[in-house]
Structure formats: structure tokens, C-alpha cells
Amino acid sequence: MDREFENLSDTELFILLTTDESRAGKAFEEIYTRHSPRVFAYCQRFLGNREEAEDVFQETFIRFYNSRFKTRKMSNLAAFLLKIARNQCVNAIREHKHEARYNDEIMIRHDESDETDELLNLIKMAIELLPDEYKEIFIMREYNGLKYTDIAYITNQSINTVKVKIFRARERIRQILQPYLSEMSK
Amino acid sequence: MEEINGNTASELLNLLIDGELESSQEVSLYASLTENDELRNEMRELLAIRESIHKDTEAFTPPRTTKRAVLTAVGLTPGAVANAPITQVAIQAGFWSGFWAKVWVPVVSAVVATIITSLLFLNFYDTGKTVSSSGSVLKKIPVVSSSEKVAPEKPANILSTNGINKSIRKNRNIGITNASRVVPAPNVIYNEDYISSDNQTIQPIETASLGTEIYKTNSLNYSESRNIGIPVIALTPNQFSSLNRGKLSGLDITLILRGISAKSYPTVYMPSQWNPIISNFSLGGYVTLVDGLDVGMEAGLENFGLVYFNYETIRIDKKNPFLYWAGIGLKGQITKHIELLAGAKPYAQVFVGGTNIGPNIRMAGGLEYSWDNGLGFIIGIEGSSLFYNVQDNWYSTEKLGFTYGVLYSF
Fold first, then answer.
1. Which of A30-44, B223-237, B270-284, B331-345 has the lowest mean pLDDT?
2. Closest Cα to residue B163, out of B241, B107, B96, B225?
3. CA-based R_g, chain B, Å
4. What's the gap in Å between the CA of B4 and the closest CA on chain A?
């Protein structure tokens, strides 16, 4: 049973999810197993707060399941899930759940850093400092490995805009990390 | 910053590392990278940032409880087969199928071990029969009354098998009662089932011309066998098992060939080019350090389910490779005869070694049984852990199942 589902493509799983009552549950479990790391990484790094990320992450999959009959054709399930996650994250930010804990969270992260992951902790802080419009695109590219076309689809922007935003996000992160990167290159 | 076809070299560099650079722009960018130190430095920094992000395991690991929460929220049960809205019956079917998937290996192992142990018990436990050296069943040995007085006879009449003597030396509790007499007759049958109530020890009193030791005690049970013309050896399986040990340079050496039928956790269902029946096996050699404790080496071939996060493709990768493993094992055994096990000996084994991708530890326990010719078999439960590293992250795979095989002691 499990083997059967593991070998199916995203599109085939989605078809089972929407057309085969008897196997929809297993199909959904497989979709969750396959895509949860990426979706959670996006939520976690975009919101910068684990508890809030967990809430949004759960809500993403619940909404996906409950709205599965609204989408007839699924060509890119990963992008579709991230689009739901993005909307949930934007809603969470709008509701100011995130901002109240923003500064404290950065301080906690700084305290948790150790030397072996020093660059990674600095990158996390640099991502937090990016404007949301750059941050989300940078995360989709670096954490989720999405192509420019997928990012453009999720964010409803042109591919050129995506290119420019990724470039600028990287420029800013490099600027923030410059003291560390200079030291590293010596 | 220099420009290439309307884009800066830095912009093209970003496209390059994202795999979005058009082929027509590659030559120009590579030329710039050759000449421009600053651009090369920028590329190194961007790659260092990406490499660090790939190590951000915290971000890629959703809490384990979340899956259950999500499935419950949408009306499903983890492991469920049916879709929401689902009936209670469907929920239960899903629960049991998931439960069975997790426990079938140990359950089957336990059932098989129980059946085999029961067969051993029924066939070899003292039910009033004794076994001759040729395998024929003899009559129940009559116990001589304690008042009878028996004198020693000619040495030629006395059972003269070196193996038996060794066996007797190793099993000093045999055949003792309070009777006061000496072993006399041909075809003497020593049976371990008659054990002294006061644990007296047999002492050698005489050496026959054929080099046979006659054992005397003031109370030794014996019986005469009348149905054969050759010496009859009627020993319990436990005595048989020790007959041929210790013949090679004073060392007890045991070779073990065994199969392993175990399930990987995590489980990966993937077809393999190997035949699992002939692939999941091991070969080992053990030397007895002290009575009941063997040390040796073992090597084998076994498949392990590997599930890890691939940071390059940003996907969970699953593999089910066959890996060679080898290492050092330590095996402890209860050497005392246990009536209930009919001569089979419980053993426990610890193994420390490695595979071609990482360290491997194993623990096993079960029953071992040997015949007089040195052949025997084992069956038991085995658990193992494999630790492996992928992209600077450590993962482990556990296996649990049963092991079975043959052994030869010489």
C-alpha cells in the first residue's frame, strides 16, 4: 500500500485525493510526507517564529485538504502548497501576531548561536531583517529551490521582478554579513 | 560593475547559481569570472551562504506531532485507508493496518521462535524415551535400587568412547543417586535426567587398557541395553552437543552461517536487484574464551532502508541498498542444561562493526542447539542500528527481526 503511493507523482496523488474516496486518506498522507519539510521551512523562515510557523503550517495543509475539490487540474503541487502557505503567512503578519515578538525572537536566536553554525545563525538574522517582499522570494529560492517561474506564479509577479528581487535580497544579505564574509575570505 | 548584454556580471552570476542563465550569456560570464577577482569572491560568498542554508535542519523539520494534528483536523487518522468523511469502521481498519505494519516483524519472530522451541521441547524433553547414538529410541532406563551392590567388571565391557568420557567430565552431575555401587556392565547408558539429590561428584577410579576411565561413585545410576550389539550411547542432547568440542589446538571454534529476516525502520519499499533470500545473510567464526563466552568476527550482506533529506535537491531521498557489514562479536551462552529447553541453550550476542557507509551495532538473543557431530542451529531475535552521514548530517536506521541459521563446532 505504502509503496504504491510513494511511487506516484504529485499529480497522480492529487487525482487520487479528489477522485478516489477509498484511497484519498493515504494520498493525503503521502503528499504531507513529501512536501511538509519545504512548506515548514518557508513558514519558519518567513515568520521567524517557530510557534507561529507551526500554526500556519498546519493551517496550510488543512486548507489544502478542505479545498481540494476546488482545483481541477494540478500541475505544480509544491508551488500550490507554498501559495497557500504564503497567504497564511501574510495574513498572520497582517494580524500583527508576528511583530509583537519580533525583536525578542532575534535576541533569542543570537543567544543560541554557536561557533560551528555561526554563519547560518547570521544568515537567519539577516533574513529576518529583509523586507517581506524580498524575504519571501529569497526563501522560496534558497530554502524551497523553486524556479523563477514558480516563484512568479506564487507571488503573482513577473519573472523579471522575481529576478531583480532575488538579486537585491542577496545583495542585502551579503551587505549584512560583509564583516563575517570578509573575515572568512582571509 | 561591468555590464554584459545589459545585465551586470553580478546579476548574471546570480542567474548562474540559480540555474537560470541562458547559454548565450555563459561565455561572457565565464570570461568575466576568469578576469575579475571581485566577481569570483562574490561567487564564493553566495555559494557559502547557500551551503549554510542547506544545513538549516531546524527549518526543514516540522514537529512530529503536527502530522497527527493535521490528519485529525481533516477527519483522518494516521495510517488510515479511507477518506473523510469516514465511518468509524474505516477508522478502526486504518488503525489496525497501521498497527500491524509496525508490529508484524516482532510478532512473527516470536511466533516462529515459540513454535520451534515447542517442537524442541516435545521431541527432546524426557518423556520416558532415550536416544541411541544411531538415533533409535531406547526403552526407559530402569533405576537401580539403592540396596543393590554391583562390582566392577572387565574394562572391555565398559563403555569406551572418549567422547563419552569427555561428556561425563563436562557433566558431572549425571546419574548419581544414593545407591552405593560401581558401574559394571556393557552398553552402559548414562542419562542426565537422573540427577543426584545431593549433587555428588563422580570420581574416576580406574583406567582401562583402552584408555577409558571408569567413573565410580557410591551411587551411580545405570541401565543395561539389550537390543543392540554395539555400544549404545544414550545421552541427552545437551551431552551430545559437547562431545566434539575442544579438539583443535585446545580451542573451541564455531562457524555460523545465518540468515536475517528483519524490517527496517524507517521502511523503504523499493525493488532491489538482489535476491533478498540469498542476500540477507552473514558468516561468522567464534572462539570460546571461557566456558559460555565466545568472541569472534562476523560479516554479512543486508539491506537497510535509508531516508534522509537531500539539501541539494531539497527533497527527501529514500534508498534501500544492500550493504556489506563486518565487525567483532561477543556471544554469551548459558551452558547449564535447562530442562525446559530440552538441551537448547539461550544465548545473547553483542556486535560492534561497520558498513561501507557508517558504523553498525547489533544485539541478538535466542536459542542455540547442537548435535554430537558438531552441527547445530540457532534461532533468535536480532536488532541492529546503522548510523550514516549525508551532507554533514547524521541519520540512523534501525532493524528488528529474527535470525536463523546453522553452526558447526569443531
1. B223-237
2. B241
3. 34
4. 16
Closest CA to B388 of B326, B311, B308, B317: B308
B380: helix, strand or coil: strand
Task: Identify the closest residue of chain A to B50 by CA–CA distance.
Answer: A142
- Is the Cβ of A170 closer than 8 Å to some Cβ of chain B? yes
Q: Cα Rg for chain A, rounded, in angstroms? A: 18
Comparing C-alpha atoms, which of B343, B233, B100 is closest to residue A2?
A: B100
The neighbour count for residue A160, using CB atoms within 10 Å, is 10
**Whether residue A138 sits in one domain with residue A91:** no
Consecutive H or E run containing B396? strand B393-409
Instruction: Provide the shortest C-alpha distance from residue B310 to chain A (in Å).
Output: 11
How many whole angstroms separate alpha carbon B187 and alpha carbon A92? 93
Distance, in Å, from the CA atom of B76 to the CA atom of B328, rounded to the nearest integer, reads 47
Q: Looking at the complex, does the CB of residue B313 fall below 8 Å from at least one CB of chain A?
A: yes
C-beta atoms of B67 and A36 within 8 A: yes
The dihedrals phi and psi of B206, each to the nearest 5 degrees, come to -160, 150
| Buried/exposed code over A89-117 (b: 16+ C-beta within 10 A; e: otherwise) | beebbeeebbeeeeeebeeeeeeeeeeeb
- CATH number for the domain harbouring residue A127: 1.10.10.10
DSSP labels, A99-116: GGGHHHHHHHHHHH--GG
Task: Check whether residue A114 and residue A94 sit in a common domain.
Answer: no
In chain B, residues 249-268 whose CB comes closer than 8 Å to chain A: 267
pLDDT level of residue B269 (50, 70, 90 thresholds): low
Q: Could you tell me which residue, B198 or B362, shows the higher pLDDT?
A: B362
Q: How many domains does chain A contain in total?
A: 2
> How far is Cα B180 from Cα B148, in angstroms, rounded to an integer?
8
Whether residue B15 and residue A163 make contact (CB cut-off 8 A), yes or no, is yes
Residue of A nearest to B51 (CA): A120
Q: Least CA distance to A162: which residue of chain B?
A: B15
The three cell numbers of residue B317 are 531521498
Contact at CB, B81 and A148, closer than 8 angstroms: no
Q: Burial of B139 by CB count in 10 Å (0-12 exposed, 13-18 middle, 19+ buried)?
A: middle
Shortest distance, CA A26 to any CA of chain B (angstroms): 6
The whole-angstrom distance between B325's CA and the closest CA on chain A is 26
CATH number at residue A37: 1.10.1740.10
pLDDT tens readout for residues A52-92: 899 999 999 999 998 888 877 788 899 999 999 999 998 88
- Both A93 and A8 in a single domain? yes
The pTM of the whole model exceeds 0.90: no
CA nearest neighbour of B214 among B157, B263, B260, B265: B157
Q: Which residues, 6 or more positions from B54, have their beta carbon under 8 angstroms from its beta carbon?
A: B311, B312, B391
| Cell numbers at B168, concatenated | 561425563
The parent domain of residue A182 ranges over 103-186
Mutate to test the interface with B, among A5, A8, A44, A77 (most CBs of B within 10 A): A44
